[in-house]
Design a protein that fits this description.
378 residues, mainly beta, globular
Length: 378
């Protein structure tokens, strides 16, 4: 891997086995070090399983755990509870359907329970936060029809049972993509919405109270484009930052196979959901944003990908951007396989930050290796 001079690396690890593996989420662990959620094809297994890996502060692997079945498990998000235990969120493929699937594990990664939402209603989980009083808030989508998903939010108790649920934007097809618990109470959510039957889409954001009631909601129309967010976070000035993808169609957007070229899009909202600015980062090919984290100095780091390039410059992509969206520095991590992305970035207590990849991979991919990089403070 190759880095620009001002992006100092403390350590990096690349894992791998005889088949594909990947990382999707990372936390700085209350028990010390870092814990990462991913997927692995276990020896003697029949499909990919959830994979939990713990690293100490210097990047050594201290333990690994896998959780699976005879079906394909697809991991998405990892949260840690006040007692040091973990909740793993994702889905399992059963009978050509994606079923919402949780695993609860103790502080050493040992399974406590597992639960799936299998019913006549389709549930899609995208992100989750842990509550101090036990339980979780989950966002995603629900539907009775595959093509008519609704923005969805639910509260789960400590055993994964549903306490209440909310849907938003009933006139739209949509899916919530990211949620953050706010220091002042309530939650910030962002998602993708579209008119039913249309292939163009817009970014949606909202703030709710602790019970899921809307405080405000905002929509950013992008006529003729396909746009969606991947992450929302809070900034020191009580604003919100969103990062995602925005694509222009190269042919007919309503054709059976529309062809898009994407830019990384960054949006800043004030505390009431008003758009302060929108920035597109366009290079010579397609780009996209997967995660953003705010640094103590008010700047922020964006993690994403340069997915295609006429000049061959592709791979996981990091940017240092100021509070007004001005690019200060960037770092393209050299990639050795296709669809390798920087999928999550988090701040560390020592002032540095951690980035992981390559993100969710298709089961037919013949090669991918999970990786984690610990950077020093910029």
């Amino acid at each position: 891997m190759v880095y620009s001079q001002n992006w100092q690396v403390d350590w990096e690890k690349q894992l791998g086995n005889r088949k594909m593996d990947y990382f999707t989420d990372v936390i700085e662990d209350k028990n010390g070090g870092f814990t990462v959620l991913g997927s692995i094809y276990p020896e003697g297994g029949s499909s990919y399983d959830y994979w939990l890996v713990h690293f100490n502060e210097t990047g050594d692997t201290t333990w690994t755990r896998s959780f699976g079945s005879d079906s394909l498990e697809i991991p998405k998000r990892l949260v840690q509870n006040a007692d040091g235990s973990y909740l793993l969120l994702g889905s399992v493929k059963e009978e050509n359907s994606d079923i919402l699937f949780f695993v609860k594990a103790d502080s050493q990664g040992n399974e406590l329970w597992r639960k799936s939402f299998k019913s006549d209603i389709n549930y899609f989980g995208e992100d989750v936060v842990s509550l101090e009083e036990e339980g979780f808030i989950l966002v995603g989508a629900k539907s009775t029809e595959q093509e008519n998903k609704k923005l969805w939010m639910t509260k789960l108790d400590a055993k994964g049972e549903m306490v209440w649920e909310k849907t938003f934007g009933e006139e739209y097809t949509g899916c919530c993509k990211s949620i953050k618990k706010l220091p002042t109470g309530g939650f910030a959510i962002t998602g993708e919405i579209s008119t039913p039957g249309q292939k163009e889409s817009d970014i949606w954001a909202a703030r709710t109270d602790e019970n899921g009631e809307l405080v405000w909601e905002s929509q950013f129309p992008t006529p003729g484009l396909k746009a969606w967010p991947e992450c929302i976070c809070c900034s020191p000035d009580s604003c919100f930052m969103l990062v995602g993808w925005q694509g222009a169609c190269m042919n007919d957007i309503n054709s059976e196979e529309p062809i898009f070229i994407f830019d990384l899009v960054l949006v800043k909202l004030d505390c009431n959901g008003k758009v302060l600015w929108i920035k597109n980062f366009d290079r010579e090919g397609s780009e996209g944003g997967n995660a953003v984290t705010i640094l103590p100095d008010g700047n922020f780091i964006v993690a994403g990908v340069k997915a295609s390039s006429f000049l061959g410059k592709i791979g996981p992509w990091l940017m240092l951007v100021d509070s007004e969206g001005k690019l200060l520095s960037e770092n393209l991590i050299k990639s050795h396989f296709m669809n390798n992305q920087a999928t999550k970035v988090i701040n560390c207590s020592d002032g540095g930050f951690v980035v992981i990849g390559p993100g969710i991979q298709d089961e037919s991919n013949y090669r991918s290796n999970s990786w984690i990089i610990k950077f020093a403070s910029l």
